Amino acid sequence: MRVLPCSSLPMLLFLLQPWETQLQFAGPRCRTGPLDLVFVIDSSRSVRPFEFETMRQFLVGLLRGLDLGPNATRVGVIQYSSQVQSVFRLGAFLRRDDMERAIRALVPLAQGTMTGLAIQYAMNVAFSVAEGARPPEARVPRVAVIVTDGRPQDRVAEVAAQARARGIEIYAVGVQRADVGSLRAMASPPLDEHVFLVESFDLIQEFGLQFQGRLCAIDHCSFGNHSCQHECVSTLGGPRCRCKDGHDLLPDGRSCQARDLCNGVDHGCEFQCVSEGLTYRCLCPEGRQLQADGKSCNRCREGHVDLVLLVDGSKSVRPQNFELVKRFVNQIVDFLDVSPEGTRVGLVQFSSRVRTEFPLGRYGTAAEVKQAVLEVEYMERGTMTGLALRHMVEHSFSEAQGARPRVLNVPRVGLVFTDGRSQDDISVWATRAKEEGIVMYAVGVGKAVEEELREIASEPAELHVSYSPDFSTMTHLLENLKGSICPEEGISAGTELRSPCECESLVEFQGRTLGALESLTQNLAQLTARLEDLENRLDVVKMMNMEKRD
């Protein structure tokens, strides 16, 4: 236990005074601000009468150094042995004389040492609003000072932890025979600032002086060693770190982390929510723009497409990478206008066999498609890409599977995703797919064979083949696929799908064709005129050269 410096004569005379007087004249009265303070005093039979009298004088002297009042410090005192007795509650007295009178009339209980029971009483009764404590929403600090001279006869660790969890700051003062382990189990952290052990009741004034110094308005933050990332707050126990609004204090007690508002509010973001201090904002996947409502994302020109995805589920992919493939598929779905009238999506998985996970006509929203993709189970085994292409051509784009009739001219798109060489021939059905009018895209990862990817894909290969060396980096392919599957010029959602054999369709086609021919004729005439001008200029140059030679 450290003793306060006493190098000067006035300090020496101060320490030689009766310590009740020391505490009374130890400087100006502490201006602590609002504080609810409860003393929990051990009056068991092990505390001898003269020791109890010393503790009584200690309390009286400490009171004289406090700024008491209804809006300042409120004090309550309880004593305990085998039972607990309230000497006076927090709201009972506001005058110092009344408190001193009650303390001087205190009669010790002289029984056992049930410290845990006393803490339970302080937590549930002494610090209740009914007893005079200010309500929790007032954020008035609650401090309990436990003074004991022995080992508790009941458990204290659990109930002390509950009290601290309720916001009660506990100082544990042990005298003579007190058990240090029990003191540490009761006190608030940091323990070196909340645990005090003195050799005798005669020296308890040392704790009184230090405790009074803690209650006084000492700015612990001014010493500059708090290491707080945001703000430092000076408390009774020393400096405490506090974070700015919208941030939470990390377990190290110094660092702050932005609060994730996206997990605590119904943000309504269609794709992704990002917390930013006291607010949040919505983000859209790459290639899509946030709409005016700040929540939804634009679609792939809301185009009409029948899209079938062929996903490699062979054993070379591995389970963890297959999950990345499913995530990649869902990112593709994110930029599509999935609806019965817009884009329809089907999914086929292949390995040594082929399995339709869901056909084109099953799901009508992007959310339904994405959930179905997440539920797909990994097949493993071989890599029969040719068999998968045959299945796609013969079944996946049939009207029975949900594809729209050919007369509606809805584009049919096939996207093959693979990570290795096929174990069967792909050439026949890759060619057949393109002959059937299916626009084919090939996405390769890792050990995928470029020659096979080009054979699967439509021309030009630069627009229809994508490759990534690793599963974890394949998200960069999304922009290429978005620009290909969603071309700038396409069939928009506002376009009425009609049979090309209807009269209106023929007239419209004829009009567009004649307009294009007329534009070409004008361009050709302009080009011819420019050529004639160049020829005339060349003739002039030739004549000038001949004249010079003559």
TrEMBL record:
Q: What is this protein called?
A: Matrilin-4
Keywords (A to Z) from UniProt: Coiled coil, Disulfide bond, EGF-like domain, Glycoprotein, Repeat, Secreted, Signal
Q: Which SMART domains does the entry link to?
A: EGF, EGF_CA, Matrilin_ccoil, VWA
Q: What is its main location?
A: secreted
Gene3D superfamilies the UniProt entry points to: 1.20.5.30, Laminin, von Willebrand factor, type A domain
Name its cellular compartments: Secreted
Q: List each coiled-coil range.
A: 517-544
Q: Which organism is it from?
A: Pteropus vampyrus
PANTHER family found in the cross-reference section: COLLAGEN ALPHA, MATRILIN-4
Which N-terminal residues, if any, form the signal peptide? 1-21
What cellular component GO annotations does this protein have? extracellular region
Record Pfam families: Matrilin_ccoil, VWA
MF terms from GO for this chain are: calcium ion binding
Give start and end of each VWFA domain.
36-215, 306-481
> Which InterPro entries does the protein's record reference?
ECM_Assembly_Org, EGF, EGF-like_Ca-bd_dom, Matrilin_CC_sf, Matrilin_CC_trimer, VWF_A, vWFA_dom_sf
At the top level, the lineage of the source is Eukaryota
